[in-house]
């Protein structure tokens, strides 16, 4: 089977640092190659793949800001569309714009909807619901206005995450510093639990950081800034638990899967995809408020860290994701 | 011949007020209908045409700001592309994005390049130079990097512009208030000529207006704000001359053609398309600086206003433009 994987071109595939959509396009492409699929990855020219790379854009438009994003996007997409007949299937990770070429080509298209940046883009997805198969990244992220062929969870490279049997005694907040992610709630949970809290992530909302996070920093509430892959492994693995008190319906939550791969249970507010990512009382706790989260911290010793690793490996691995997508492709062809 | 005319969807076609690309798409469509061509105009749903209107976008995204421009653009373009086989030819007035669909459809495409918003978009035009025929709106606006099938000047509805034999005694600046358009130079020319100056246009550069225009306003240097069609006719027609001391290579200059249609000569800095729009010493004067412009004002009585009207009617009419495009289409089919 010849499959074209269409990555975004904001960042390199896989990304150097940030770039979740490019990361998943890479994990899908490499996972398919491992399953013996003939994969051509359409991505920036500095991208890496064990398949065949096809590129007309030198660098991501977020990495070389002299470029016009709209120009490189449409040149990148049309490059694939003009070669569509070479492939048995196109797997689109590039949001809605490629859909508008889909009725002009002979090749079936699977589109992973990594998220809805706005309610307004639904009009495009609705129009093309009959000419492309949609995959959601969680049941929670499905729009009632669209038909879906499947839910396929994001898959990670399991071996990149080191399992840690004996953790340190701190709690961890890992993610963007933003009200949606509940940084202030995490601080509250840690203080009321009498535990140390490490905070790692980029400051996305500067006013929120200045007003609701910074004044509470201390020897026990420590802000580390963003963490690279090596530090991430250590921070996630050695945490007693990941605190994930989100205030929005998160479509997936990569750090929740990553923590569990390291053996670390997750205490999350019960929103969005959290019930799909966490096995209640087995790999963490789903709670509704800070008080319940504090109780969950007291019970964290009841969680088997090996169970966290096993659950995440079974459900959120690159191999599982690639196999699930292959089943979707076969259904479609 | 069945022709699809693709207008932008920033504004209604024709526009209520501003919207030069939509205006030209309308003039082409209506001019072709008058020549007996079977025209389908792809534009916003509130647009008007004597041909057939095809629309999936209710209102222009500049008129209903709740819309996402990228969403309505790609839905609008793909609507035409999916119907491409119904037409003998597509005439694209929508910049570069439609080009990226052109190799996926069976229908030849003519693209009028109304201007280059940035050097960066040239990459798209270069890629599609073999699959669409480019038309420039003046010889001056041609990029040396592109092949062109023809130059076709913008064409106006001649009867919308009333010829005025006996003007008033004022000079006119008509256009955006911006350094490119030379508002300050126009004031200088008027003062040194001892003539009254009326200034009509939207303030595009507020700092420039505040610093270099506003302090010089007086009983003789009058700022009127933007002018609608009725006032435009009166202002253009009753002017002794239009001052057009541009500081950039203007690709066309609609007001220059409009003034001449009203019988009003134009004194312009010799840049961009000005030598193509003005017949030197017959319908105006091409000058290099303010001093030469002042001399030209002294000689303005030597210009025949009837000659201005005749020249502009012969070269910048909707009828001429439609006939010129029809010749381009026939060459291509």
Written account of the structure:
The structure is a homodimer of 333-residue chains. With 333 residues, chain A is an alpha/beta fold. Chain A has two domains: 2-155 and 317-332, Glycogen Phosphorylase B (Rossmann fold), CATH 3.40.50.2000; 158-315, Glycogen Phosphorylase B (Rossmann fold). The first copy, chain A, is 33% helix and 17% strand. Chain A has helices at 20-34, 69-81, 122-127, 183-193, 206-213, 229-237, 254-261, 274-277, 290-298, 305-315, 318-332, and strands spanning 2-6, 38-42, 52-54, 89-92, 109-113, 133-136, 150-151, 170-174, 196-200, 221-225, 241-244, 266-269, 284-287. In chain A, strand 11, helix 7 and strand 12 form a beta-alpha-beta unit. At the A-B interface, helix 2 and helix 3 of A face helix 2 and helix 3 of B.
């Amino acid at each position: 089977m010849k499959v074209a994987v269409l990555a975004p071109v904001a960042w390199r595939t896989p990304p150097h640092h940030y770039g979740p959509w490019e990361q998943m396009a890479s994990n899908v492409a490499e996972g398919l190659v491992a399953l013996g699929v003939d994969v051509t990855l359409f991505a920036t020219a500095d991208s890496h793949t064990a398949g065949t790379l096809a590129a007309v854009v030198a660098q991501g438009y977020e990495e070389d800001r002299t470029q016009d994003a709209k120009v490189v996007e449409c040149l990148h997409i049309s490059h694939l569309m003009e070669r569509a007949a070479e492939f048995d299937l196109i797997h689109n990770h590039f949001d809605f714009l490629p859909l508008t070429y889909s009725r002009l080509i002979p090749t079936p298209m699977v589109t992973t909807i990594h998220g809805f940046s706005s309610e307004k883009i639904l009009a495009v997805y609705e129009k093309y619901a009959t000419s492309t198969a949609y995959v959601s990244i969680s049941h929670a992220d499905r729009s009632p206005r669209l038909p879906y062929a499947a839910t396929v969870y994001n898959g990670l490279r399991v071996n990149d995450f080191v399992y840690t049997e004996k953790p340190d005694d701190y709690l961890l907040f890992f993610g963007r510093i933003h009200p949606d992610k509940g940084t202030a709630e995490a601080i509250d949970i840690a203080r009321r639990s009498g535990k140390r809290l490490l905070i790692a992530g980029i400051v996305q909302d500067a006013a929120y950081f200045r007003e609701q996070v910074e004044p509470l920093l201390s020897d026990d509430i420590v802000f580390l800034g963003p963490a690279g892959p090596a530090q991430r492994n250590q921070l996630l693995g050695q945490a007693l638990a990941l605190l994930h008190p989100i205030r929005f319906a998160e479509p997936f939550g990569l750090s929740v899967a990553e923590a569990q791969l390291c053996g670390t249970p997750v205490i999350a507010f019960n929103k969005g995809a959290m019930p799909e990512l966490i096995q209640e009382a087995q790999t963490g706790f789903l709670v509704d408020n800070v008080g319940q989260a504090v109780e969950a911290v007291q019970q964290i010793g009841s969680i088997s860290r090996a169970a966290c690793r096993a659950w995440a490996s079974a459900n959120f691995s690159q191999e599982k994701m690639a196999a699930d997508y292959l089943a979707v492709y076969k259904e479609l062809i």
